[in-house]
Specification:
Keywords: Signal. 5% of the residues lie in helices and 53% in strands. By secondary structure, it is mainly beta.
């Protein structure tokens, strides 16, 4: 129900430097690292250890801990369907539903496992929340910046698990619209707080404004923020002080959105909500959608302490896109030409916060028409990178060529250090990805590289969003997509790449 949207935060002090002449090489390779994974996430445990956490056919969770050379340190397995994995204290937290079926999906009972980062031993398990299994419920897992507090928010929707599809085309479309509407509603909302040992610290049920759920976040000082939307009213962000169920402040952005077949489109499908990791009382909304007669991409910052709200908005037109393509200066013979796609398909796909401002990455988000033997598939072309100052004013604009056609959807990651921003993005087949280096002061594209891990298949793709990167090393999952009844599975290979 929620559109997949990639957003991340990255600090300058925790990222990488790549010399302009560096070439990426495969150092180690682990075949069949996971078999039949239905979801994969990675967690940096400490300077010398990484945990890869996999949903094993939706019935159990496999965890493999490696060192920075992909050598296995320990492995563990727990029951349940994974929702999230994070660091809590000095240990690995895994939050699951206790059951999953193909028809009714994950149940509304959420259990946490606290696993030793040293040896993989389960230190503690605890049921955190038992909800109403008659309705679909969605969990949101947050940990504090110091990793000492866990917050579990749960949203019970108005969508029942025994949905029946009406007969005929019109009936089916009506069912789809009704299902989407019910899935977006907030029937009940609870917030539970635990310490690093999973001991209870409190629970609230905050009063929410009318609307459809966008997200929940906590800032560094433990304030709670919740964002909701209404198609013709806009987006409302509310602040809740620790332990309070009443909103202390709120702000509403009057965006107008109404679209989709039979008006099934919802504004919250196009918006991501996140908190500032560097300062208190600051949250952001970002996204791309049609508002009135414009297709906008925006990044808005809300400083609730100083009531200073800043906004960045970009509307592209066809001639501007063409001018960017014509003015592109190649820096590598393999990437002589820039193609950016359609102005109306530009999507804001990543935001990075750094000491001097923000990097905002946009890419076209399109679908092929489909053919005789295949349906429509996602594809994306070049990237546009805006370097914004702390007031969200544009400092530089850069472009990076690439081309990818799915399935699945392309992914990217970005890192900044010193005077440079490095972007890695899916490209073509065989798990290839491009690396672009941008001078953060001038906006000049200074380097382009094409990387292909060794021993990959044509349909394999690089899981860049789960890559673990250090100064001279990348630990990269490569995923081989497999179709199964009612689900998609992946066989996972693990690579160590040297810069």
């Amino acid at each position: 129900m929620k559109k997949l949207f990639l957003a991340s935060l990255c600090l300058l002090s925790s990222t990488i430097f790549i010399p302009a002449s560096a070439q990426v090489k495969t150092v180690n390779y682990k075949n069949e690292f996971f078999k039949g994974s239905t979801a994969l996430t990675s967690v940096r445990l400490n300077a010398g250890a990484v945990a890869f956490v996999s949903n094993d056919s939706d019935k159990a969770v496999e965890i493999i801990c490696t060192d920075n050379a992909t050598r296995q340190k320990w492995a563990a397995r727990v029951d349940g369907y994974i929702h999230d994995a994070k660091m809590l204290g000095h240990n690995l937290l895994v939050v699951v539903s206790t059951d999953f079926t193909m028809m009714t999906r994950a149940n509304s009972i959420y259990k946490a496992y606290l696993i030793s980062s040293e040896n993989g031993k389960v230190l503690k398990s605890k049921v955190l929340f038992t909800g109403n299994n008659e309705y679909y419920t969605i969990p949101y897992v947050l940990t504090s910046k110091d990793k000492k507090t866990l917050t579990l928010a749960t949203r019970e929707t108005a969508l029942k698990r025994n949905v029946k599809v009406a007969l005929g085309t019109v009936g089916a479309l009506y069912t789809i619209k009704k299902t989407i509407d019910q899935g977006n509603r907030i029937k009940a909302f609870n917030v539970l707080i635990f310490d690093e040992n999973l001991e209870d610290k409190g629970a609230i049920s905050p009063d929410l404004p009318e609307g459809e759920f966008i997200g929940v976040q906590k800032t560094v000082n433990d304030d709670l923020y919740i964002a909701v939307s209404q198609n013709r009213k806009g987006i409302t962000i509310s602040q809740y002080l620790p332990g309070s169920e009443k909103s202390a402040k709120s702000v509403t952005e009057p965006y107008s959105y109404y679209g989709g077949l039979l008006s099934t489109g919802h504004l919250n499908d196009h918006v991501t909500f996140f908190a500032d990791t560097m300062s208190n009382n600051a949250v952001y909304i970002t996204g791309s959608f049609k508002s009135g007669d414009e297709y906008i991409s925006m990044l808005n910052k809300y400083d609730f302490a100083g009531n200073q709200h800043k906004r960045f908005k970009k509307v592209f037109n066809k001639s501007e896109i063409k001018d960017m393509e014509k003015s592109f200066t190649p820096v590598d013979k393999e990437f002589k030409k820039l193609q950016l796609g359609s102005a109306k398909n530009m999507e804001l796909v990543k935001v990075l916060i750094h000491d001097e401002g923000y990097f905002v990455v946009l890419s076209d988000d399109s679908w092929t028409a489909g053919g005789q033997y295949s349906g429509p598939m996602p594809y994306s072309e070049g990237l546009i990178v805006y370097n914004l100052d702390k007031n969200l004013a544009v400092r530089t604009v850069s472009t990076i060529p690439r081309y990818f056609i799915g399935p699945p959807k392309p992914c990217l990651t970005a890192y900044a250090k010193g005077n440079a921003l490095y972007i890695m993005a899916s490209h073509e087949t065989h798990a290839k990805f491009v690396i672009g280096k941008i001078n953060a002061q001038t906006g000049k594209l200074e380097m382009m590289q094409l990387t292909e891990p060794a021993k990959v298949g044509r349909t394999d793709y690089a899981g860049l969003d789960q890559a673990i990167i250090s100064d001279n090393n990348i630990i990269l999952p490569v995923l081989d997509r497999k179709l199964a009844i009612g689900k998609i599975k992946y066989d996972v290979q693990l690579y160590q790449l040297a810069w």
